[in-house]
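Deliverable D4.2, example record:
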Amino acid sequence: MKNIVTRLGFMLLFAAFSFSPLFAINLEPSRGDSTNAAKDTTSTLSKEKLDNALKEFKSLSKHNRKERIKKEKKILKQYKLDKKNNKAEPSTNTVLLAILAILLPPLAVYLHEGVINNRFWISLILTLLFWIPGVIYALIIVLS
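Output generated by the structure prediction step:
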C-alpha cells in the first residue's frame, strides 16, 4: 500500500510539472459590444482589422469620438465592477479547473495558483489521505 501511494504521489507531481503549460492557456473569449471588429470573436484580431477600426474611428466627428470613448469607459467600468463582485460569468478555465479538481485535486490547485505553495501541499496531503477532503479543498480553492 505504501508503495502504491508513493508511486501515485510521484506520478501526480510529474503530471503537475509536465502538463501545466497545456492547461495554462487562457481560453476566455473576447468581449466586444460596440464595434463590428470586436463582435467577431471567432477570428483573431489582424492588422487589417485594426487599421480599419482606427480609420473608422478617425473619420468620426469630434463629438462622436467623445461619445464613443465615454460609452466604452462606462462599459469597462461596469465590467471591472462585476469582476470585483464576482458577478462575471465563469470563464472556461474555471469550469475546466473545477472538473480537474474532482479528478486530480492537487493538479487543479497547482494550475490555479501557478506555483507550488502551501495550498498545493495541503491539497496533496488531503488527497493522499482521503480523496473526498482533497476534492472539497481543491474546489474551494479553485472556485474562490
